[in-house]
Amino acid sequence: MTNKEEIDKIILLLKENEPSLSEEERRDMWNNIEQENNHFEKKSRIKVLLRKTGMVAAVIVLLIACATILKRYTEIGITNYTNALPTAEVSASTLYIDGETMEMGNNAEIYCLPDQMKLRIKQGGGFVNVSYTSNKDLALSVPDNGNVKVHMADGSEILLRGRSNLKFPFLAERREVHVDGKAYFNVMHKNDIPFITQAGKLTIRVLGTEYMVNAIPTEKRQSVSLISGIVEVSPKGGKSVTRIEPGECFVYDDDNAISKIKKADLESVNAWKESLIVMKEKPITDLLMQVEQLYNVNLSYSLTELQDISISGKLDTSVPVGTFLHNLSQIAPIKVDKKGNDYIITYD
Predict the structure, then answer these.
(1) Which of 6, 121, 288, 320 reaches 20 to 30 Å from 131, CA-CA?
(2) What letter would DSSP give residue 99?
(3) pTM of the model
(4) pLDDT of residue 8
C-alpha cells in the first residue's frame, strides 16, 4: 500500500466514524484535512524524502483533528459498584454497566445498540461509544435536577428525572424494567412481547402506550397516569388486575393497601415531561417547598410574611436553582438573597 493510499484509508475511517459536530465544524475539519492531503500530493512529485516528510505532516494533521474530535467527547470516570438498582443519592447521573459505573452529565441520552454490541451516550453536544458484549441488565441513577432519556433497543423511550433509579435491559427481546422515583414511558407497540414495569409496589403491563409512573420510595402513595393506549396495573402480592384507559390515574395507598382510579392530571404530567411547574393561583409557599425538594436546597423564608402571595404560570425547572428563583422574583413580589449555600426569600 502506498503512502497516499494509507492517508486515504485514514480519511475514510474518520468519515465512517465521524462524531456529532455542527455542520460548520464538520466542514472546516474536512477542508483542513483535504488541503493537507492535496499539499502532500504535490510534495510527492519532488523527492522520496520530502514525500515521507509530507506523509508524516499529513498524519500529524489527522491526529490533531482526531484530538480535537476527542475533546468533544465527555470524559467518564469508572469505578466498581455492587448494587443492581442503586438507592444512594448521587451527585451526577450515573450508569451502572456490568460491575462498573460511569458518571455522566446530568443531562444525557443513552442508546442501547445490541446489534452493534455497544451503548451510545449523548451528552454535552458529543457522543461516547461504549463497547458492551454482556446480556446483563443496566442500571441508572439520576440526581436532583438530573434529566436522562433512555432509548431502549426495542424502540421504547424512558425519561428519568431527579432522585430516581432505573434498571433496564440491553436486548430488544427483553421488555421489563424496574423504577424507583418518577419516569415517563413511551412504549413501542409489540403484540407478542408485553412491556412490564415494576414500580414500587405496582406491576404495570402494556403492549404499547404512553404513561407516567410516580413511585417515590419515601412516599406512601404510588400512581400510574395513562396518556394513551391501555395498561393493566396490579399491586405486588395482590391477585386483582385493574385496567385503566387514557386520562385515568391508578393510585395505590401502601399504608392500607387500597387502590382507586381517578381522573389524571394530564397537564401536570405533560409539564413534568417538559421540565415545567404549573401553578394556578397557588400559594407561593407551596411552590417554594417544591423547589426545596426538586433542587435539594435550603430556602429560608417566613410563612406568615409570604402566605398571602399567590402565583399562576409555568416555570422552567431545567435551569439552575439561582436562575429559577431569579425568574420567580420577576413575577412575584419577593426578593432573593444568597448566603453561602442557602437562599433567603423576603417580601418585596
Answers:
(1) 6
(2) T
(3) 0.69
(4) 60
